[in-house]
Structures are given as structure tokens and as C-alpha cells.
């Protein structure tokens, strides 16, 4: 074989193969002249005229077929062999048959199709079929399966349609396996509507789709975030007679469907698939998936589902985190199940997690929305105290705040709870809401006697003082914080400055000086109040900094 011929492109190699014998054939078989003549007569005859092929030619063809299969098999398990090299090797083997005048049969063409598949040469399928028709060789049904599969892998639905036309010419029927190749192409192209229409077509023809086929359409539904459609397909797969096949697909399908449904908030699908997939032991959810489902349960106020998911989280060995408890408690609180809500606070602590203020605030909304819920929650606390002889202080603080929020400061029972500084802060929040300065001062002094003070509580006292016209005690608390080396929170200073600006207090520049000393900047909103105060008291263009310095001088040395 010449060097130039060996370097021809793949297309040229194929065109040479589909012509007659090469100009320079491979070395001839060691056959008698009469035997070679018999082979030539066979190859020139039509299919109807052919007599049985000469045994030696048949042996050569079987040998070449074996080598072609071996070449394709090695390429399937050895990624280091390039598709091009496999293609060239198989074509060269076929040319050996051609050079010896041995005709191609259906198996030869099928092996050549395998070589095309290795090299993604779908464009050569139709020429190959034309050559087979010209040689009066009938393609096998398996040939069409492989051709459809090659076109599907490249997403070429138009080529698939032309292959189907050729297949129908040979009177091959549409089967479940043929449809599967079509669905494979639809998945490549994301054709959901066409896939659903094709399933209906199969139903009309009484052709049952395989589990693998349903899985392909399922994948398209998941791709387009259609959990309801995907669930229907999953149910069809489960109802099929391919129980073992479904079992191998069930884990993946349930897992993907649960994630899709949870991500897209499809509550009904999540609930059904949780029961069938997780409780039915068909799949093992990962931590992220369980958390997503827990959020769906909370969003739809389903404490039963939330409880099941919560238990599954621990059963699968995952570590509970604060947000898992928060989500479950919010689902209970949304249905006013205060007993379960408060009990979970104790479970949190037993897991080494401390309920924080943010969690308490999230649960406050349903508790304070309805005055009747305050008494229901209080009754739940009393029942817990009777049953377990313990009530979590966060639950106590929540109910205490709810009563104070409704101006009912003396109703909440003690229930053996040791109040903490958060209890004081909770009470002060309620006093600020109700503008109950006297009650707030009483609570503050009571806790202060027991050494329960905090930066937050003292700052809240400044804010509480500003709810009345006479807010002089606000300065007392500020001085107390200064003497203790406690920095007032920014919010309380903002509230005080706003109050001073609204009441035309001449001490405003000094308060601003204190704010600057603590590193707090004036916000645009607060600056509007300051500018209005300045217009009323100092209509001149004197800068505010000069006003501050002058006020400081008067304070220290008196008026001159």
C-alpha cells in the first residue's frame, strides 16, 4: 500500500471503500484460479442469482469480521486509542475483503457502522445504506438500532427521521427499543412536548415504554423544572413489569425528583415523593436535600412532614444545626402548636445549641398577632412545667414579652424559671412598645439589684426614656454607662439625638459630639432633623462644629 494512500483523510478512505476494488489490491489468496473465478462470479451476481459462497471466501470473511469486532472491542475498553485510529483500522480490514473480491454481507456493514459510531460519523449512515441497497444487502434490524443511536447521540432528529424512512422500506416495525432511540435524541435536544406526544403515540399503538425510556423523558422534565410531570413518569415506571430495572433507576429518580420539587416549592410532589422515596427506603437523601425539604414543610405549615424530615436528619447521621430547629419550630408556631414549639427549645439545648434572640423574634410574630394566642402559649408553658418540671427561659421570655406587648404585665406565671438578662431585655422591649417608662424603670432596678445589667439593657433604657416628653433620665443612663466604660449602642444615641432635635433641645451639639467620640456617623435621615433644629435655633451660617465648640466652652467655663 502506498504511503500517500495511507495518509488519506477519513472521508477519502470511506469513499474508496464504497467503490470497487483498489487499483493495487492486497496480496491475493493462495487459491486456485478456478476458485477465484467462482468468487468473482458470486460477487457480480445479484442476491437472487448467487449460489453459496466459496468456503475459502467465507472463511476469510469470518476471519476479517473477527478482527473487526476485536478492534472495536479493544477501542471500547481502551480510551488511549483514538476514534480515528479505530475507524481507519476497521476500514482497512474491510478493504482486505474488497481486495480479494469477497462481497460484504449485512454483518460487514454493521461492523463498519460500529466504526462510524466510534468516530461520530453519522453523516456516512445514509451513504452506507445506499451502498447496501446497491449491493442488494438487507440491513439487519440491529443495524437500524445502531444507526438511530448514533444519530441520537449527536441530537440529529432530522437524520433519525430519514433512517426511520429507510427502516420502514425494509418493513421493520416500530418497537419499544426503536422509540427509546428517538427519546434519547429528544433528551439530547430537550424536547419535552415532543417526548410527551410520542408517549401518547406509543399508548395508541399499545407499545409499552420501557423503564429506561420513561427515565429519558423524566430527565427532560427535571431539566425543565416540571416536578409534576416527572412524578407522573416516575409512577408509570414504578407500575411497569420491569421491577429489577426500576429498582436500579428508582434511587436516582426519587433523589432527582425530590431535589427538583423542593427547589421549586412543589409541596404536593415533595410530600408524595418523601413518603415513597425516603420512608419507602428507595433512596438515601443527602444533607442538603433534607434541609431543602424541611424548608418546604415549614413554608407550607406542615409540622407532620417537618417532624419526619427532622427525624430523618438525625437517623442518617447528619449534625443538627440551629437553622434546622428554627425551621421546624416555625412550622409548629405557624399552626399555633406552642407546646411542640417550646419543647424543641429544650431539645436544642440538649444538642448543645443555644436558642438566640433572632429565633425568638421569628416566633414572636404569630404569638403577638392574636391576643388569644398569648393565653394559649401560657397554658402550653404550664403544661410543660407540669409534665417535665422545666420550662426553657427563652419560651418564658417569649410569653412574657407577648403579655407585656398587650399591656398585661402581671399575668405570666413564674413557672420556676430563673430570669436572665435576656428576660430584662425582653421586658424592656415590651415597655418601649407600650411606652411604660415607670414599669421599665422598676424592672431595670429589680434586675440591677441582682447584678443583671448589659450594654443592650442600658441602651434600651435610653430609648425607653425617649418615649416620654420628659426624657431627662436618658442622660442619667448615659452617664452611668460612661462611668462603667460601656459604649452606648448606636441606636439609642440616634433615638436620643432625634428626640432632642424634635424638642428643640439646646444640648443637641453636645450629644452629636458624643456620637462622634463613639465613632458613630450621622445618617442622612438623622441629618434632616438636625438641619431643621439648626434652622430654628441658629439661622446664621455658623457651622455646626463651631456651635459644638461654643457649647462645650459655655458648659466648662460658664457664659462670658
UniProtKB/TrEMBL annotation:
InterPro entries: PPR_rpt, TPR-like_helical_dom_sf, TPR_mt
PPR repeats: 105-139, 175-209
Entry coiled-coil feature ranges: none
Signal peptide: 1-23
Keyword Glycoprotein attributed: no
Family of the protein in this entry: Belongs to the CCM1 family.
Subunit structure: Binds to mitochondrial small subunit 15S rRNA.
Function, as annotated: Regulates mitochondrial small subunit maturation by controlling 15S rRNA 5'-end processing. Localizes to the 5' precursor of the 15S rRNA in a position that is subsequently occupied by mS47 in the mature yeast mtSSU. Uses structure and sequence-specific RNA recognition, binding to a single-stranded region of the precursor and specifically recognizing bases -6 to -1. The exchange of Ccm1 for mS47 is coupled to the irreversible removal of precursor rRNA that is accompanied by conformational changes of the mitoribosomal proteins uS5m and mS26.
Listed name of the protein: Pentatricopeptide repeat-containing protein-mitochondrial domain-containing protein
